[in-house]
Amino acid sequence: MTANVSFLDQLFNQGILYDSGVDGIYGRSADFEDVISRFEDLALSLGKDEISEAMVFPPGMPMTDFETSGYMKNFPQLAGTVHAFCGSDHDHMGLIQCMAAGEDWTENQKKTDLALTPAACYPLYPILAKRGPLPESGAYVALQSYCFRHEPSKEPTRMQMFRQREYVRVGTEEQTTAFRETWKQRGQEMMDLLELPHHVEVANDPFFGRAGRMLGSSQREQELKFELVIPVNEGASPTACMSFNYHMDNFGKAWNIQQADGSPAHTACVGFGLERLALALFRHHGFDVKAWPAGVRKSLWG
């Protein structure tokens, strides 16, 4: 790492990311996107014989499903909603005048029925619920989505718009907990292939408010969420780049997802932070992908 030049500035200087002027919103280079694509191929190769289907979601989701997720109970400061102009022609003229004068023009921006997706798996659950009771084998879905979290930061790993690649397992307690344990092991094996320093730890999420802190304490005690962390940002704690989550039957109850016997389904997911993993690779192997270690290149490019 070059002295006195932050990792983010190096990414800008090397043309890996492009500065938009807003922290956490960046353009991405062809090399950056290629690394993400190659990593996704690697991740999908490990579960391709297990999935029942695959889906890709847009960065927005219905407001009703967002509310059902319970996200606002814990992270209201991170959430984003979609607003749009709902005024008259007269209001439109006033909006243009306000913009020209550099004044606030948002008076007639009203909320729509959309929220920005905070976690990639949320749009999946209402889809499964509408299908009725799951088969005995449950569901095993590979998905990807852009996500939003309002936490502007100079740390390049803390983007406001980012992608998550996930595997989601829905079914019995035994099916979902076995899935999570399998992917905890696979995740570490993947990081070994990519020659990235890492370790897995019980998650310590910064839950918001007193109720959230109590929930977070319970979560840690029950070991419901683990994270695979990698040192990326200089002078900061290692970054969570993968997560392994067991939700018990909370989402099954929230969305009325039923097992074959009619009882609430259990859910678990493994999430890959695609931008974070790409940044970890550039951080540890350099900005020239052609000079990366031979083993890493073989794992990603074959």
UniProtKB/TrEMBL annotation:
<protein>
    <submittedName>
        <fullName>Amino acid--[acyl-carrier-protein] ligase</fullName>
        <ecNumber>6.2.1.n2</ecNumber>
    </submittedName>
</protein>
<dbReference type="InterPro" id="IPR045864">
    <property type="entry name" value="aa-tRNA-synth_II/BPL/LPL"/>
</dbReference>
<keyword id="KW-0436">Ligase</keyword>
<dbReference type="GO" id="GO:0016874">
    <property type="term" value="F:ligase activity"/>
</dbReference>
